[in-house]
Amino acid sequence: MKQSRLQKESLDTAARVYATRIASAEEYLAHRGLSLEDAQKAGLGVVVEPLPGHDSYVGRLSIPYITQSGVVDIRFRAIGPQEPKYMGLPGNETRMYNVSAIINADDTIAVCEGEIDTITLHYKVGINAVGIPGVNNWKPHYRKLLQDFETVIVFADGDQPGQDFARKLSREVSGILVINMPEGEDVNSMYLKHGVQWFKDKAGMR
To answer: What mean pLDDT do residues 150-179 have?
Structure first.
């Protein structure tokens, strides 16, 4: 569904306001191996003083979905023990995260599940990456966005949904290289344990 100018302006405003409070998530970010600078590059924020309609997101990390036209969505992730872990804006359809990576990548693009894993790959490991917010949110038209790349690396979570996700993409996208995380692990946890070189070695990169 096409967004109105007012909706886009509202999303841009929310992302900017929440980004000014990202320092309050510094401890959480450090726990995930991310710096404030990484968070600022990704436009992350924290909902401290909620805009109208955002009261239920207080205390959560705001994760803007940014395209060439601006912010098109915001997801909200629990920083502490809040449930559910993720919340979205009512009525917004799920989207591919960090789509600007497709424009900036050369012949290789990575795909993983979730925004934090995508940020880890993109900013910490240095591999251009896009993310799908959950294995069930893959959409057929995403294949067209990836079809021109020589290599598409799928970093699959070490659980059954992650394996199912990798198999699904292998059927739909050519040039797939699947890198499976060990059981119970994901991109971020493997980065914390093994650093950048583990990913570069698995992907055959220098």
So the answer is: 94
Q: How far is CA 103 from CA 67, 69, 148, in A?
A: 10, 13, 11
Q: Does residue 3 have a pLDDT over 80?
A: no
Pairing of strands 151-156, 176-180: parallel
Question: What whole-number distance in Å separates Cα of residue 199 and Cα of residue 125?
Answer: 7
Residue 32 C-alpha from the chain's centroid: 14
What is the structure's pLDDT at 1? 56
The domain segmentation of the chain, as residue ranges, is 5-88, 100-203
Record the pTM. Answer: 0.95
CA angle 107, 161, 133 (to 5 degrees): 60
Q: Read off the tokens for 126.
A: 């240095």
CATH number of 100-203: 3.40.1360.10
What is the tens place of the pLDDT at every residue in 169-190? 999 998 899 999 999 999 999 9
Q: In the beta sheet, which residues pair with residue 93?
A: none
> Cβ distance 18 to 11 under 8 Å?
no
Question: Which homologous superfamily is 5-88 in?
Answer: DNA primase, catalytic core, N-terminal domain (3.90.980.10)
Judged by DSSP in three states, 184 sits in coil
- What are the tens digits of pLDDT across the range 43-76? 999 999 999 999 999 999 999 999 988 999 999 9
Question: Residue 173 and residue 169: Cα distance in Å, rounded?
Answer: 6
